[in-house]
Model the fold of this input.
Amino acid sequence: SQQGEEDPQALSIQEGENATMNCSYKTSINNLQWYRQNSGRGLVHLILIRSNEREKHSGRLRVTLDTSKKSSSLLITASRAADTASYFCALLQANSKLTFGKGITLSVRP
Amino acid sequence: DAGVIQSPRHEVTEMGQEVTLRCKPISGHNSLFWYRQTMMRGLELLIYFNNNVPIDDSGMPEDRFSAKMPNASFSTLKIQPSEPRDSAVYFCASSLTGGAYGYTFGSGTRLTVV
Done:
């Protein structure tokens, strides 16, 4: 498969807790990206990590990449109710195609 | 910048009719992508353009689908004739340099074919 597989499919946490989402893949990639989609809206780019990077931070977001295991994780710290959304892992391959996984539904309870 | 602009936001049409979806990418972006999102199949890349030239249309489901990009600020996705199984949300996205820095998505067109 040329798309990532996110895990878990759904996650429910209490506001203030951390949320960890994982993505595994099988193909070679140029970079891996995470997107958020609120219900009925388009996707919003959150963070990108290149294949030669291991960790990146952006505000409350931390993404890691392990190319030997072909896996990535997205950590959202101190979650808020507004973080409730679907999160997608996307793989950019050498052919410039960006392919998306099926997504993770995150619910943050106030 | 107003972002990627898609129109219409919603489209309801009868089976057999022609449907045209429109997209205005972000000014200065040289790559444009059309995706389709359904519950069953998730997000599928249909076609992408680089500098207004179609690069890969292998995701276009069949000959009923066609896409054009006559200039850097406009693209269309046409379905003729439409079928109920085409019902989905269609997204347009644009980026610099083939997506190496992330894509900007439009709000999508929700198409319902009855």
Q: What stands out?
A: The two ends of chain A are 37 Å apart (CA to CA). The interface with chain B takes residues 3, 30-31, 33, 35, 41-45, 48, 88, 92, 95-103 of chain A (CB under 8 Å). The first strand of chain A starts at residue 5 and ends at 7. Chain A has a mean pLDDT of 94.
